[in-house]
Amino acid sequence: MAHLEGVTWPPAHITTDRLVLRAAEARDREAMLDLFSDPRVNRFVGGAEPREHLDELMPELPGQRTGFFVIEHDRRMIGIVTFDPRDPERSGPVSAEGGEAELGYMLLPDAWGRGYGTEACAAAISWFLQVAPDLPLVVSTQLANTSSLRLIEKLGFVEVERTEDWGHPQWYGMWPRSNAQRLETTRPAGQ
């Protein structure tokens, strides 16, 4: 992945008050099959794949790429955070060449509504800023995905434009480097 070329991977585990972010391990495979086959999780990202089909395609050690973090809570995988190069063919890229890092995240439904996504993404962004300080960080989500929009807002992403991808209106934004201090205040109320 050229946009994170030269980054040491996997990094040391990243810990927050409640979570561990780490590289994927073989023990995560079943949870990843659950994640990518769940229609609720995949509603806004193109739809779920049948579990049997994913089982045939997924390697025994899934998620082996730079920028692919497993979110662990109580020693169990509950989701993922990723930094992938943004495809220059998609609408809304920051530069004509593309390749900006795009934040992605997915959580299993039993982890929803507890602030884990915001906490994990804030920790992952902190890591990203240390290893790729000059690389733009972008994010997009369907406008219909109100939970994702709330998470993006809590993290401090700034809307750049509204676009359309895959036949659906999208919110497209950048994370301004001036927001580095904001990451420390993204824990849910009462945490």
TrEMBL record:
CDD domains: NAT_SF (cd04301). It comes from the Bacteria. It holds the Pfam family Acetyltransf_3. PROSITE patterns: GNAT. One of its GO terms (molecular function) is acyltransferase activity, transferring groups other than amino-acyl groups. InterPro entries: Acyl_CoA_acyltransferase, GNAT_dom, N-acetyltransferase. This is RimJ/RimL family protein N-acetyltransferase. Residues 19-179 form the N-acetyltransferase domain. The keyword Transferase applies. It comes from Leifsonia soli.
